[in-house]
Amino acid sequence: MRLNLRLKKALAMVAVSAVAVTTVPATVFAADYDTHWAKEMIEKWSEKEVLKGYEDGTFRPNGAVTRGELAAMIVRVFGLTDTSSAAKYTDVENTKWYAADIQKVSSAGIMNDYADGTFKPEAQATREEAAYAIAKAYQVATNDETSSFTDQAQIADWAEAEIAALVAGGFLNGNPDGSFRPQATLTRAEAVTMVHKITADLVNVAGVYSQDTEGNLVVNTTGVELSDMTITGNLYLAEGIGEGEVKLNNVTVLGDIIVEGGSVNTIKVEGQSKVNNIIVDKAGKNPVRVLFGNLVEAKGTVTLKSNATIEGNVLALTKVVVDGAKEVQLVGGMKIEEIVVNQTTELALVDGVTVQTATINEKAEGTLLRGRGAASSVKYINVNANGLELKKGFKYNKDNVKVAATVTTTPKFPESGGGGGGGGSSSGGGTVTEKAITIESFIVNVNGTYKEIKNTNNTFNVVVNAKANTVTVNGTEFKGTDKIASISAKEANGLKTVKVYATDKLAQNIEMGTAYTVKNLADMVNAKQADLFNILSTVEGQLGEDYYAKAVALLTNAIGDLNDYANANKEVSVDYMMGRAERVRAKLAQNNAADLYAKVEGALKTYGVELFGLETETPSLTAKVFVTGVESGYEVDTFTVNLEYK
User: Fold this and answer.
1) In what residue span(s) does the SLH domain sit (predicted)?
2) Which of 12, 204, 534, 643 has its CA at 20 to 30 Å from residue 133's CA atom?
3) What is the mean pLDDT of residues 386-400?
């Protein structure tokens, strides 16, 4: 069938119109707010897909916001999905557009409802209802703050603490006459303003973000990396992350981190990140794993309201509070000053956790405390709850288990006597000990004689002087003509074996007093080849295909050169090392090293490595190396290696 020209033109216009309609975002409204005082906020939050207009294309900023619309806004900010604890309201029909959103805020306990079993979704939201919902959604702490509006007595009891908390935090203001008008309705523009004041920014698209945030930041999707930035407020890792992954790399968070999404795929805190309080409060039963890198500094309290795994090899925590989590795992060589258990839980200490004091409070009746893997330890245990059960697998001293006079069901100890993981005593537990590690020096066999490199405050300063043809380590000088046959280490406390690592992915056991040759070094590197290439693969995305291929080739050649040298020589010539260093410096100067380093700087910092002065005649680096015992119960020492080429 042939179409006439007029019909063809008509169909073409329809097609163009259809394309235009489908490509314009749903959040583009008619210009009914162009001159409105909230224009910028409306545009920002519509672009973030938090706001939606009406079918006629308007936004109606001065229209009253309904309770259903308020629920939808909160759902979109946090990406709420869970409905497992939702109430069934008699006035919320499943076919209504707001039904799913109301189920989500109900399950999260964010919005108030009514004693008659209704939600009143189409009723206009009041100012106190909106304030209550915002405070609950953002977990604004309600302490002892009080507000002093002229109409304070009109504020409902159930909203009073939340309103006071928002006012104290600078997120809510009253009216010029000093009133709050709690039962007054809220316009759509005013509702947007409340969200805007408490949310500096929202990340809802996967990617890498590096811009500092003045205020609170919400992340509500998986596949996000926050890198090299400071957040002055709270960081909300929201429910919209689902079972996905978010990474913090060299991020400073001055407020709290509230973890509401994630899974065993982990929330990763890496590099030289600095964090304060962390609250894990995820809906549902699936646990969240929060993994801390070796250089992370955590100052505040970790509060676990939902099932969680907290993992870190050299992490130092002041306080961990278990307050709702049914299952908790603390994993790795971390040190914790205090654990407080407020509700019944099963707490597992895994692979060398050291705890100074654990307090089991009254409502934690029937709590179970166990250990797994390399033995962990708890020095003091205070029992204020009935029915505490201590399983095997961690060390403690029964004499240091103090039971309150109010406890009627005393703790249950392992039938075999206890503490486990290193031997229990007949009194119920193995005594907790913290064994020190002191690397005194390295002994170098050079030209048939021995030189000692002494440890200086756990720092080793290496200077490669190309002009003088020397290498100096903590004041001990080696000339280019020197040949090194072996190196051994001395430990002051009689420890036979230590574990040396820059990351948990790359660790090596070293025998104290054993003379290691260049062949031994080559064997160690060969054994770790897969780990080295796996670590390199973690920066493939930052490097790009071309640079990554070059990096793989460089690592492959370096391993090959080391093996060739070790097979041909029993000793290491200092001249050889100087030559290799010069080759590396020359390559850095020729290959846009500074630009390349900028791509992987964050990843290298994760492994404790920083480079300086690239593309100059005098590049340098600083690296962190960690040393601990092969068995649990030993302290973790941090060593700094400073390498300077001149």
Assistant:
1) 25-88, 89-145, 146-209
2) 204
3) 92
For residue 638, the model assigns a pLDDT of 81
From residue 168, alpha-carbon distances to 95, 135, 141, 200 in Å are: 40, 12, 10, 17
Beta bridge partners of 642: 461, 622
Nearest by Cα to 347 from 385, 313, 292: 385
The least confident of 72-81, 209-218, 540-549 is 540-549
Question: Bridge-partner residues for 316, per DSSP?
Answer: 335
Residue appearing with tokens 């973790």: 636
Burial status of residue 11 (CB atoms within 10 A of its CB: 0-12, 13-18, 19 or more): exposed
Residue 83 dihedral angles phi and psi, to the nearest 5°:
-130, 15
- Other C-beta atoms within 10 Å of 253: how many? 25
* Encoded tokens for 339: 């654990």
610 pLDDT above the threshold of 90: no
Q: How far apart are CA 119 and CA 136, in angstroms?
A: 17
pLDDT for the residue numbered 582 = 82
Confidence grade of residue 317 (pLDDT, cut at 50, 70, 90): very high
**Cα angle 213, 206, 171; round to 5:** 30
Q: Token digits for 90?
A: 């008699």
Could you tell me the sign of the dihedral formed by the alpha carbons of 250, 256, 258, 264, in that order?
positive
How distant, in Å, are the alpha carbons of 60, 215, 278, 440, 447 from that of 490? 76, 50, 40, 6, 20
Alpha carbons 635 and 82: distance in angstroms, whole number: 42
H/E stretch holding 499: strand 497-503
Decide if pLDDT at 154 tops 90: yes
Q: Are 629 and 499 in contact (CB under 8 A)?
A: yes
Among candidate residues 220, 194, 197, the one with its CA nearest the CA of residue 104: 220
Tokens coding 360: 């089991």
Residues with Cβ < 8 Å from 15, sequence gap 6 or more? none
Alpha helix segments (H runs only) across 569-618: 574-590, 593-606
How far apart are the C-alpha atoms of 475 and 463, rounded to whole Å? 9
Confidence of residue 434 (pLDDT cuts 50, 70, 90): low
Structure tokens at 579: 């030559």
Provide the residue type at 17 as one letter. Answer: S
